[in-house]
């Protein structure tokens, strides 16, 4: 079938033997299905965006960089989204036709709600790991004035006795000569600094980290003298566990992030598949319910999946309105959404129309 207004037209196989209740029950179900539709679309869309973002992480997991949205149809069959839509078959294994459509809809609603919560937890864990790594990297990239000194200052750099103490001082490179010249002579009125005790421990693009050994009782005086000369004293207390953690933390976090990423990526692929499939089944249920409400029983309608050229959507609507206006209820035929006599505040068509947005191309199902 070709309308000349779309890229392709496919028959959508919706079972016409779904079990439904009374008209009142169908009206209630119609409202609920709209809500479930929104939940399914929102969840699969969020999972898909997260999958796309995760592809940017350079983790050696073969095939991730080539991944495209897919639906797991069976153990030995996986279809790209568009192939799944154009060859859609009702999944009787999950949604048995001997159950009321209300029960099937509620089953999907509960399942998607569970997936939504689990996705929130898993994605948050991955985001938190990335945040911690970013913080760690920012600290590591900071200057010696602010970055943690654990892992930089070793136990061998420290002398602590009853009478002596080690002080750590960050000196601008432009003042390094002044430090070397004055730290053990005239920083204080009396020579209470151990001669030749200054050791360069680390340096960056702007600063040098030195240590010096002073008499413990004059430690505060020496720190004050450093401040007057624009030398920056860094308070530091050596902790072997913290030092080892500093060395291990970055690599451990990166390893944890990579492992978590692989696990979450695989789970999200499965979650997207389940949510997308559930979403299309909800669309099928909505089509069925709206058709029964509109055309009555027994169900007799044809369902189509139409891939629309975005520039021709209005023409497509006009085509169906013109060709199927004989199906329009006379009470609502002349009404539009702004008509004061319209009790539902919506526009009526002689056909059921639902939209499936995939990528930048809407697919209209009638």
Describe this protein's structure.
The structure is a single chain. This protein has 366 residues and is of the alpha+beta class. The protein has 7 helices and 10 strands. The protein has helices at residues 23-54, 81-86, 101-141, 176-182, 219-228, 240-295, 313-323, and strands at 6-11, 70-74, 77-80, 164-172, 199-203, 207-215, 232-234, 304-308, 354-358, 361-365. A hairpin with a 3-residue loop joins β5 (199-203) and β6. The radius of gyration is 35 Å and the shape is rod-shaped.
Shape: rod-shaped
* Global structural class: alpha+beta
Q: Encode the helix/strand succession as letters.
A: EHEEHHEHEEHEHEHEE
- Summed up, the helix count is 7
Q: Kindly state the mean pLDDT as a whole number? A: 82
Show unreliable segments: 332-346, 360-366
Describe the main β-sheet briefly.
4 strands, antiparallel
- Span between termini: 14 Å
Strands ordered across the widest β-sheet:
1-8-10-9
Work out the radius of gyration.
35 Å
Topology, number of strands: 10
Strand content: 15-25%
What helical percentage do the residues reach? 40-55%
């Amino acid at each position: 079938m070709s309308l000349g207004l779309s890229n392709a037209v496919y028959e959508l196989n919706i079972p016409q033997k779904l079990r439904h209740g009374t008209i009142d029950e169908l009206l209630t179900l119609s409202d609920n299905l709209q809500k479930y539709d929104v939940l399914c679309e929102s969840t699969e869309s969020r999972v898909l965006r997260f999958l796309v973002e995760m592809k940017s992480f350079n983790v050696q997991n073969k095939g991730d960089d080539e991944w495209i949205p897919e639906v797991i149809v069976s153990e030995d069959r996986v279809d790209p989204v568009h192939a799944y839509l154009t060859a859609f078959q009702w999944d009787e294994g999950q949604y048995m036709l001997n159950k009321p459509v209300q029960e099937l809809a509620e089953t999907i609603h509960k399942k998607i709600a569970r997936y939504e919560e689990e996705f929130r937890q898993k994605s948050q864990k991955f985001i938190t790991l990335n945040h911690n790594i970013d913080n760690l990297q920012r600290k590591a990239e900071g200057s010696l004035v602010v970055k943690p000194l654990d892992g930089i200052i070793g136990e061998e750099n420290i002398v602590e006795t009853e009478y002596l103490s080690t002080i750590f001082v960050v000196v601008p490179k432009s003042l390094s000569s002044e430090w070397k010249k004055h730290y053990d002579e005239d920083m204080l009125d009396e020579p209470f600094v151990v001669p030749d005790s200054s050791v360069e421990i680390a340096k960056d693009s702007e600063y040098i980290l030195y240590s010096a050994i002073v008499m413990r009782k004059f430690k505060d005086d020496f720190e004050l003298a450093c401040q007057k000369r624009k030398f920056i004293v860094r308070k530091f207390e050596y902790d072997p566990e913290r030092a080892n953690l500093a060395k291990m933390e970055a690599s451990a976090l990166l390893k944890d992030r990579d492992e978590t990423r692989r696990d979450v990526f695989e789970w999200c692929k499965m979650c997207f598949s389940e949510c997308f499939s559930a979403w299309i089944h909800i669309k099928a249920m909505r089509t069925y319910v709206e058709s029964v409400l509109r055309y009555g029983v027994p169900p007799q309608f044809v369902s189509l999946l139409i891939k629309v050229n975005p520039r021709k959507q209005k023409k497509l609507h006009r085509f169906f309105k013109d060709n199927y206006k004989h199906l329009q209820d006379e009470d609502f035929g002349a009404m539009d959404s702004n008509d004061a006599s319209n009790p539902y505040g919506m526009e009526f068509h002689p056909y059921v129309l639902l939209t499936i947005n995939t990528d930048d191309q809407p697919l209209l199902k009638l």
